[in-house]
Amino acid sequence: MVRLLTHNMLQCHVKNCTNGFPLRFQDPVIEQHEQEINKEFLVNMLPRIDWNALRTTVDQLGLPELPAAVPENPAEDEAFLAALHRALMEVNIQSGSMVCPECEHVYPIRDGIPNMLLSEDEV
Asked: To bridge 103 with a disulfide, which of 1, 15, 17, 123 should be the other Cys (CB 3.0-4.6 Å)?
């Protein structure tokens, strides 16, 4: 399944494409699946997350808003961790596509799996 955690780490790799992040969703079919929160995992993942890209994606998908910035002590902010968990771990994109913001290459998503393969002339 394409979770927003995974999406936040994907970028376009088409030859000569230099600004292929973040990919934007097109016609997404969203499912939400509740999961048990793992606060330690979330805190450890925060340095790897592009916060602005995550906020942009959350806004694009019409999901509950995330704060403008990560709190100073995120491990102690229960409301922040709950919102982050919902966005990163409970939102699943089942189908649709991801589109590069620069070259407009389309990466289809079927059954929750993104096809990131490129044709020979795109590599």
From this structure: 17
Distance CA 40, CA 32 (A): 22
Q: What is the CATH number of the domain that holds 83?
A: 2.20.25.10
| Under 8 Å between Cβ of 80 and 67 | yes
Q: Is the pTM of this model over 0.70?
A: yes
Q: Does 109 reside within a domain? A: no
User: What string of DSSP letters covers 60-90?
Assistant: HHTPPPPPSS--SSGGG-HHHHHHHHIIIII
In the DSSP assignment, the letter for residue 73 is: S
Query: Is 119 within the bounds of a domain?
Result: no
Q: What single-letter amino acid sits at 89? A: M
Domain count, the chain: 1
C-alpha distances out from residue 74 to 40, 48, 53, 79, Å: 11, 14, 18, 9
